[in-house]
Amino acid sequence: MASLRDIRATFLDYFASHDHEVVQSAPLVPQDDPTLLFVNAGMVPFKNVFTGKEKRAIPRATSSQKCVRAGGKHNDLDNVGYTARHHTFFEMLGNFSFGDYFKERAISHAWELVTKEFALPKDKLLVTVFSEDDEARALWRKIAGLPDEKIIGISTSDNFWSMGDTGPCGPCSEIFFDHGEDIPGGPPGSPDEDGDRFIEIWNLVFMQFEQIDADTRIDLPKPSIDTGMGLERIAAILQGKHNNYDVDLFANLIHAGEDVLGVKAQGDALASHRVIADHLRSTCFMMADGVSPSNEGRGYVLRRIMRRAMRHAHLLGATEPVMWKLVPALKAEMGDAYPELGRAQALLEDTLKVEEERFQRTLGRGLSLLEEATEGLGEGGVLPGETAFKLYDTYGFPLDLTQDALRAKGMTVDEAGFDKAMDKQRADARASKFSSGDAAPEAVWFGVRDTAGATQFLGYDGTEGEGRL
Ligand code: ATP
Ligand code: MG
Ligand code: MG
Ligand code: MG
Predict the structure, then answer these.
(1) Does ipTM surpass 0.90 in this model?
(2) Percent of the chain predicted with pLDDT > 90
(3) Which mutation among 90, 160, 174 tests ligand 1's pocket best, with the greatest number of atoms within 8 A of CB?
(4) Which of 3, 259, 411, 457 falls 20 to 30 Å from 108 in CA-CA distance?
């Protein structure tokens, strides 16, 4: 059985043998890019090369890049545990041409790698092209010999990539694998394309234009190539699995979770186990790259993901911290390829333990409140925004955690009401700061107690901002 390590090596070696420089994964925190919380694609570390700001000695590169998609433009947090193909952290394999080769070679490399090196059966593969990209369509016909019905034209932004409102852009072409008719889902472009039968494995981006302003798009003198293939998705196929979470790496992490929690990953517990394994990986990689939990920015994303995993552990019966106990299993799976996991091990364990201890102090009570608040609501019910805000403010429940908890019951949150409650609290805080600027600490304390209620105010026995997120 091909391991993740073998698959990664096959990809990188293939492109190295075609004169690509093998480049190490950049850290998850983007270097000099304040617009992006986490690296979310293999091309991110090469952005300045694509725009021409930076030159590289070798015009071709290949990498396996650590990626996080848990917020912003690409947010896969809500997919985890529910689809067969999404993680919050994953590795993106890629090959890049910086003004060197273009469409024809990109397609022939991709086809050769997939059908020869990885030996995927041609009859299970289909591709998409941007509907206006006749050149790509003709190349797929010529190189892969695919019949017309397996070269699907797509006119949406799924098949047109751009770096931003201005800058390089161009059509994409994606390779899909058909996991078989037993699995629900339609081919790309069909109404049920979000099912998991046809899984996208590789996106080839043809950067051939530059958007100058809203109305002007010019041809790039030297077009470039950027591609991204999900390592876990190709591994699932090569290991004869449909679901990414059945790949050996995840099977082993989930097995470790079963041991620690004493609950088998089956029936209702399966999704929780998958969420825990996924979130363990993303949170550990984020921390190993220097992010620590906090109430804003990257640290907030990290804490949100941790707390979601911790709620799932609670659902499976955890009464004491468990996430930290899974760090050795993660290190065993990925520590060779990513030595930062070993270097940070003590930090990862300590941080997870402290965070879970802290959240467990309010988690049970928050869930009881949620239980009470939803008692009268049936399926399709909407939780009042004020309740969701109280869960956030007093019990440290990020909004998306509450939404995740309600999803199983078919309920949602009144988000506008939540925002309103948040705005009101901010306005109140500003007003009280203004009026009680010189107040003695006791007066502030009593003021807070009065508004929050003596029994619910949980913020004073620990670090500042304890229950809040
Ligand atoms: P999908 O449509 O399945 O959400 P995508 O179109 O958002 O995927 P791209 O942005 O094209 O994905 O990224 C390139 C490749 O990275 C995808 O073809 C897929 O193999 C992989 N990939 C993307 N998102 C994830 C994820 N959340 N988990 C695992 N692999 C992913
Ligand atoms: Mg996506
Ligand atoms: Mg897609
Ligand atoms: Mg895609």
Answers:
(1) yes
(2) 85
(3) 90
(4) 3
